[in-house]
Amino acid sequence: MLEDLLSGVEKSRFVLITDAAESCGRHFFMNWVINVAKRCDRVVLVCFERVPEFFLNWLPQDLQEKIIPINGKSTIHYPLKDDTKDLLFEAISNALLKTRGQSAVLIDSLTLHMLLRQPPSTCSTLHKLSTLHGVTQVVAVIHRDVHDTHTCSIVGSIASSVIDIHSLSGSRHTCKIRHCRITGKVFKTTERFSIDYNFHIKDIGPLLPHERPSQSQPLVKSDPMAHLSFNLSLTETEKQARSQVKLPYLLDDSGDSSNNEQPSNARIIYHPDDVDDFDEEDPDDDLNI
């Protein structure tokens, strides 16, 4: 499935790539740039984390001419207060006015935009981009360890393909793919791939059972009372002695109170004080009872 999505055999209007600090998806995104540039006439590349030259210098010369770079940091200035203007959509749509034929939009990271805008606003922008005339595909990356699960789910709900990248070992990675075709059929699979020294993807295939990461051992919680100078727990002898203590005012098996077996001669002696205020009036005198 991954190879078909990269080559364009499987059509997908909006591809969402999620990564994390331990499994960076930048090199994976670079392969998407070169594959999209091969099959599209023009590619609008929006860069928030890296300068456009980082990607352009890696591409062959003939593909560099197809790229329309947009430096998101210097071009798109987000106001301090929330603004109703869709600055990202305006910048991309203005760049698409210069294109003819089939075009694609690739965004190296949506995380900054999502931190400065509400998730519904981001979803609206992505939906408008993916439905623009002449745009065949929109590809964007988000860092799932920066956003909460709910935010990632909202953006992923409008994507026709979601690829979650996880690190396996070294240059080997796995990706969980959820792809929805136009017919409505949904495919879910987990595949593996490797990245060589030139940042090209290779060895794409299904994840074999023996390659799955082993389940980590459950963490043993430390006892906060283990190193105290006093003991808060009871020994078995102390627990047994506590269970044999008869509490006062509790009935035993015979139905008698344990307090009745040894009646007490205690009395309550009260000496009135001079300042005591005794109200002889009936507090309920005004009630018609």
Automatic annotation (TrEMBL):
Q: Where in the cell is it found?
A: Cytoplasm; Nucleus
Q: Name one GO molecular function term.
A: tRNA binding
> For the region Disordered, what residue ranges are annotated?
245-289
| Keyword tRNA processing recorded | yes
Tell me the domain of life.
Eukaryota
Where composition is biased (Polar residues), the residues are 256-265
Q: Which GO terms describe its biological process?
A: tRNA wobble uridine modification
Q: Where is the composition biased (Acidic residues)?
A: 274-289
Involved pathway(s): tRNA modification; 5-methoxycarbonylmethyl-2-thiouridine-tRNA biosynthesis
This protein's record includes keyword tRNA processing? yes
A Gene Ontology CC term for this entry?
A: nucleus
Q: Which family does it belong to?
A: Belongs to the ELP5 family.
- What is the designated name of this protein? Elongator complex protein 5
Organism of origin is Lymnaea stagnalis
